[in-house]
Amino acid sequence: MPWLFWEDRHGDGVIHKEDTRETKLRAGNPHAIVDADLNFYDTGMYNNLYWERISPKQILANGVPLYDDNTILHVPYVKDGYTSDMAVNPADGSVIMYAGSDIKNMTKTGIWPLTSWTKDGKMLWRYRLGCRWYDMYEIPIPKAGELYGCTRNLGITDNITGYSCYFGQAQLLTTDGIPIGVITRDGRSGVIAHDTMQCEWFSGQLVKLRNNRWYLLGGDQDGRIMEVLGLNSLQRFAGKLTIKPEETKAAADALVAWSSQQARSQSLVLSHCPAKPNWDDIHGIKVVVDANRSFTVKTAYNATDLLVRYEVQAPNALVNSSAEMDKLFKGGNLLDIQLATDPTADAKRDKPAPGDLRVLISQRDGKPVTAVYRPKVAGYAGEPILFTSPTGKESFDKIEIWDNIKLDYEKSPVGFNVVAYLPLARLGFTPKPGTVLKMDVGYIFGNTTGNITATRAYWSNHSFSSGVTQDVPNESRLEPKEWGSVTVE
Fold first, then answer.
1. DSSP E strands, 189-258
2. Which DSSP letter does residue 449 get?
3. Integer distance in angstroms from the first to the last C-alpha of the chain?
4. Angle (nearest 5°) at CA 258 between 252 and 259
5. Are 53 and 35 in contact (CB under 8 A)?
6. What are phi and psi of 250, to 5 degrees?
7. Separation of alpha carbons 62 and 40, rounded Å
8. Residue 94, pLDDT above cutoff 80
9. 409, β-bridge pairs
10. What is the CA radius of gyration of the chain?
11. CB-hemisphere CA count at 13 Å for 241?
12. String of b and e for 348-372 (b: at least 16 CB within 10 Å)?
């Protein structure tokens, strides 16, 4: 079915067939708006969030604008979202979009609910704290700046904007993302007053009159006009805040230490799914290396495949050009999956046992490349492959190079998202619901071309060897005693 655009050429407010035409616009929800220049804006919704603008080419004598599809600006944001709402700043044509997402996505690197864009579609800033409205039942009464459950933008006046929220709060902030405060009560507070709203508050408009008085319009089951005091006296901090290099380093070190402890405390599940999983419903883990590098991992399985989803924040793409295929770990930019396929193996073993394996995955020339390391293979009688250096040696019965696994890869604003499909039969792995298996997931960060490893990070393993990047035996080593416990659903 084509998408249709109505232009009221008759000027009678009635939709005539001849007033409609096919359009390339993809208005995904009813939150369309028109600015002072009669530009028309719409947004996507649910699993594909974006905003669009189309401009008029002609104004008819009856005042009706006609639009030109050649002027369409389409600005994509994220694929995994839910609701969206937007407002246009009359001062400069910039756009503020709220993309409320599933609360399970709040740790995702690519989904920040509030974003600001220039008129030509370049992101100016983004704001982290927020989720879709019906996840508000899991959130306590928000404080100022906690934009949970926003339902509607209150408009933009004099670089001040805000949002009505599901349980009745009106959260105000500046157009450059600085929280101002909350001016109405959350309906769960137990207080009934003139500024208490009913839940599912989807209205509201903040206005400033010519006499410089501010008002919030919109009520509960009623209509209200509430004067807002104090906005005219807002002042920006005009001083200077100096952060010394040693303070920056201390904060970065503290973040890494905290993230390491947080990662260890997170649980990973291997979720059973009939075919393609709903990743939003699967619990994952997140590992933060620094302000520019992190990754989130979720795992699932179906009748044929082990599925591993990575959401990676990194300056470089998933690309590896290591000269030696059996040493992919030397090039970086790798998904690193370590797994015990034999549930009967000693959980406290120091050395790998048959069934223990490591899978490294990247891309080369736009195609998947995978190396599977098996230190011990049951019944193997051949010569092992040895990696040696002055620090010691590491032995592998088999190293397999796979070039035909399936990867779903897409770029994100901060890196990329990818799902790897690993055939269970080829791995030699049969998940058994209700069991607990040993597993670890990590990412090896590399340089732009993928020929130098920069750093390694893992959910569970924080041993000396897990951080080494310049010694082949240490880099290749499997340490099952350092792996985490994963519940098979």
1. 205-208, 214-217, 225-228
2. T
3. 40
4. 90
5. no
6. -65, -40
7. 18
8. yes
9. 418
10. 27
11. 5
12. eeeebbbbbbbbbbbbbeeebbbbb
Q: How many CB atoms lie within 10 A of CB 119?
A: 14
Phi and psi torsions of 138, nearest 5°: -100, 0
Give CA 329 to chain center in angstroms. 26
- 368 vs 365: CA distance, rounded Å: 8
356 touches 339 (CB < 8 A): yes
| Secondary structure (3-state) at 165 | strand
| Residue environment code for 289-304, b if the CB has 16+ CB neighbours within 10 A, otherwise e | beeebbbbbbbbbbee
Residues linked to residue 91 through DSSP beta bridges, in sequence order: none
Each residue of 307-316: pLDDT tens digit?
A: 999 999 999 9
Task: Give Cβ neighbours of residue 222 (< 8 Å, ≥ 6 apart).
Answer: none
Structure tokens at 76: 């994509």
30, 85, 102, 105, 148 from 135: Cα distances, Å: 21, 17, 7, 11, 8
**Can you tell me the distance from the alpha carbon of 324 to that of 472, in angstroms, rounded to the nearest whole number?**
12
pTM of the predicted model, to two decimals?
Answer: 0.56
Write out the H or E segment, with its range, that includes residue 380.
none
Dihedral in degrees, nearest 10, Cα atoms 289, 295, 300, 301: -90
Q: Which long-range contacts (CB under 8 A, 24 or more apart) does 88-94 make?
A: 88/33, 88/35, 88/39, 88/41, 88/156, 89/156, 89/159, 89/161, 89/175, 90/35, 90/36, 90/156, 91/156, 91/159, 92/119, 93/35, 93/119, 94/118, 94/119, 94/124, 94/175
Task: Give the DSSP H/E element, type plus range, for residue 30.
Answer: none
pLDDT digits (tens, 9 = 90+) for 428-471: 999 999 999 999 999 999 999 999 998 899 999 988 899 888 89
Q: Which two tokens stand for residue 339?
A: 């797994």
**Which domains, and CATH codes, for the chain?**
4-233 (2.120.10), 248-488 (2.60.40.1190)
Q: Which residues contact 422 (CB under 8 A, 6 or more apart)?
A: 305, 306, 307, 308, 337, 359, 405
pLDDT tens column, 171-218: 999 999 999 999 998 887 777 888 888 777 888 899 999 999 999 998
